[in-house]
Amino acid sequence: MILYLGRRLLGVLGVLLAIAAVTFTIFYVLPSDPAAAACGKACSDERLEAIRANMGLDAPLWRQFADFVTGIFTGRTMGTGQYALHCDFPCLGYSYENSEGVWDLLVDRLPVSASLAAGAAVLWLALGLTAGVTAALRKDTLTDRALMVGAVAAASLPVYFTSVLLIYGLIRLTGLLPYPQYVPLTSDPLSWASNLLLPWLALAVLYAAMYARQSRGAMIESMAEPYIRTARAKGLPRRTVVVKHGLRAGMTPILTIFGMDLGGLLAGAVITESLFGLPGVGRLFYGALTTGDQPVILGVTLLAAGFIVVANLAVDLLYAVVDPRVRY
């Protein structure tokens, strides 16, 4: 297990280094004037000169990339003399639009996106796995067909359409839920949950539909394996056969897509946060796109890549728990 973990960690470091190289090329090498791109749409000549000094564009590319990478892990001082600007660890750049470090902006918004992703993930796993396992155990029956038709219908609805329907039905017509306003979990857990329930539902409807179809296929395949017939022949309870043997073996593809989905949502759900007015990373990213705030766009890109890579590492470790053969 230790060797397996060591190999995966080396692979993660390699992937993160490759991602850093690609993002550096996109944001620092490809633009004709990276300083102008980082400054945004409106930038004076004096400010542009300061940004060029901060970014160290007069240094060789290899040196710029080395400073870029080491700054992420140790922090760095951008520029020299009167233009010197210290960027604490982890340094993801400096937003000249907001006059604040990119990491500080992300840390301020990250609890909102993390709350949104965590709650939605619990809902879509519960709904999706329940529907998928039920459909698999009742294969080719009316229940199976009804659940899969519902899953296809839910998966075909874009999240903004589902969000509008939920806002109109649960807020404007019935008043069952308040319009979402983020409340920190530590200050009022009940208000935190009630204010996020609507966005959770909007995301869970879409993802649960995909997980229902995926889990149905995985369960049908695992329940046809010889060891399932052996477990039944031994007289094991149906619940033990289904959960301990069938569902456990069928969890591998579910874990794969779950790692990707959760990692992406942790870096911000742009449409959902914008529709519900949640001040998360996704909304910050959308604002950066509209204003041309390149350092923030770069920071969110690196954050999203990092979350996805780490989530996939966690999934790989869970593979070893679900299926011991993976350890070898």
From TrEMBL:
Segments forming domain ABC transmembrane type-1: 110-319
SUPFAM superfamilies, A to Z: MetI-like
Subcellular location: Cell membrane
Short name of one Pfam family: BPD_transp_1
Membrane topology qualifier: Multi-pass membrane protein
TM spans (from-to): 9-30, 114-137, 149-171, 191-212, 254-276, 296-322
Protein keywords: Cell membrane, Membrane, Transmembrane, Transmembrane helix, Transport
Protein family per UniProt: Belongs to the binding-protein-dependent transport system permease family.
Name of this chain's protein: ABC transporter permease
Lineage: Bacteria, Bacillati, Actinomycetota, Actinomycetes, Kitasatosporales
